[in-house]
Amino acid sequence: MRKLTQTLSAALVAVSLIAGTLAAGAQNANSENNGLERSPVLGWSSWSFLKRGPTAVNMEAQALALHNSGLQKLGYDYVNMDDFWYQCPGKQGPNVDDYGRWVIDSTKFPAQGDTNGVKVVADYVQGLGMKFGIYVTPGISKQAVDKNTAIEGTPYTAAQIAVPSHGEENYNCRGMVSIDYSKPGAQEYTNSWVNMFAAWGVDYIKIDGIEDYNGPDVEAWSKAIRQSGRPIVLDTTEGDFTKALAPTLMKYADQWEFAPDIECGRCAREHPEAGYILTTWANIAKRFNLVAEWQPYAGSGRWNDYDSVEVGNGSHDGLTPDERQSQMSLWALASAPLILGVDLTHLDQQDLEYLKNTSVLAVDQDSIAAKRVVNTGDQQVFAKTELNGDAIVGLFNLGEKAETVSVQASAVGLPEKKGRYSLQNLWTGKTRKTGSTISATVPSHGVVLYRAR
Question: What are 141-199's pLDDT values in tens digits?
């Protein structure tokens, strides 16, 4: 790979600013504005690598590694803490405070003086110039219902807003039940959550376990964010929702993940010689159809989220170098959030160059979701047209041996004309000319990503 240049960095900044301005101007008039990112989020999440083990010590270590790696300077500036930050005693649901909200696990996140342990981490992350995210699931803990806790600032209680007969998805702790948002106090309960998070310095909230019936929860959390006065990204991730929820997500959420986890839960057992493996090619390949199917719902400051980018730890990624480029290229073509799931304290140098490729990052940050224009056997082509008329073209080979993948220039949005087009390979930096057909020999599970003009 060629050395990254200041010219490319400047190009990334310019494209990002243009995309952000246009996306903000094109914001759906019917959508709520939570006051934040107008281009896809870049950052890191704890789940893939830390899983059940986030602590103040390792969260701060990962944040410092992101800061020192040079990735923060390119926009990777969210540090998101996933599940297992709160006390989970059993199936009765998370432990709760006097207002029915989850209680911090202080063995993992010890307080410092009057500052609780999660805010300590948030302060550390923000002290490095980055932003801090946290994880929740919909509903209210059974413990809050059983104790009939008060709802902060209201005369109402947990039992008055809960639907104990209807459970909510909390994959790891259990014990959450639904909220009836038609009841007085229900919105105020969610407001109290966001106000608490805002006081902790939270910049990003992930609500996991969303189903089609959780539209009122998504709306309530969006309203709660806006009333808090703090700009906070709202990320909704799937329990098993479908496109039926898309209109609600497009109105109230900033991004949404509808695919199964990209992590390979069995890989440690199946490949003990590797120490650990984060994902597999099979999990990446499942996203191609999802990117095509959900393309119409992206844009205008709202983003399809295809889960973590598992590029950064070399052989521990579970992907070959070609497969790593394919994952990054597909996410970039889709203008999806690039949220790393890797161990940032042990970054592989080649992977770091992939992550720092500003030509590819500019494709992601242009805020345009690519369409699939070829879907033939193992060959897939995704393309989108930039504001200046350039076409971004991804030639993918999902097969087990190298293949020539081709598409007509007119099919990817380039104007019909006699003569030649210029193709810049965004992974190698090399440029060549072509006629009316854009083609390349693509390695197994690989990609050739072109900027065509």
Answer: 999 999 999 999 999 999 999 999 999 999 999 999 999 999 999 999 999 999 999 99
Q: Which two tokens stand for residue 135?
A: 């994880």
Share of the chain above pLDDT 90, in %: 85
> What residue spans in the chain does CATH classification 3.20.20.70 cover?
6-369
Domain 375-452 has CATH 2.60.40.1180: yes
Evaluate whether 407 touches 436 at the Cβ level (below 8 Å): no
- Residues 67-93: pLDDT tens digits? 999 999 999 999 999 999 999 999 999
Mean residue pLDDT of the chain comes to 91
CA gap 148, 283 in Å, rounded? 43
Q: How far is CA 282 from the centre of its chain?
A: 19
C-alpha distances in angstroms, 341 versus 48, 51, 150, 217, 399? Answer: 5, 10, 37, 26, 26
Fold of the domain built from segment(s) 6-369: TIM Barrel (3.20.20)
Tokens 């500036």 belong to residue: 77
How far, in Å, CA of 326 to CA of 76, rounded? Answer: 19
Alpha carbon distance 296, 221 (integer Å): 24
Residue 448 CB partners (closer than 8 Å, separation 6+): 394, 395, 405, 425, 427, 440, 442
